[in-house]
Amino acid sequence: IRLKFLNDTEEVAVARPEDTVGILKSKYFPGQESQMKLIYRGQLLQDQARTLRSLRITDNCVIHCHRSRGATAATAALPEPGPAGPTAPGLPLGGGTLMVPTVMVVLALGWYFRINYRQLFTAPATVSLIGVTVLVTFLAFGVY
Entry's PANTHER family (predicted)? Predict the structure, then answer.
């Protein structure tokens, strides 16, 4: 069986079909059994008593592994994140939230200059502006 982690690393696990999910966890993640989440074919393997054969896990199958933070481990390992400075009430603004409006403003400026200074725009420049506008429109509607 191949155990695949979130950072795209893989580890080969040797297991028998009679082994249970609990045995697999205790064998490859000793002391972290309660923190490890095993996912096979999009389903979380929660029942620790189920055998690999009953789950139809055969040779060379991939089981995705995710380590969740336990309540005690998370509070002991990481301090509580606090604000770095004074914050204003309202929605937090990050780079991602302003990307679409920024691109729209740049496109609007492009069209403004295309309409008012048409002598500076060649046919390929106009076609390119149309293409970029259509592409950004599809992306914006696809995301939202």
Answer: PROTEIN C7ORF21, TRANSMEMBRANE AND UBIQUITIN-LIKE DOMAIN-CONTAINING PROTEIN 2
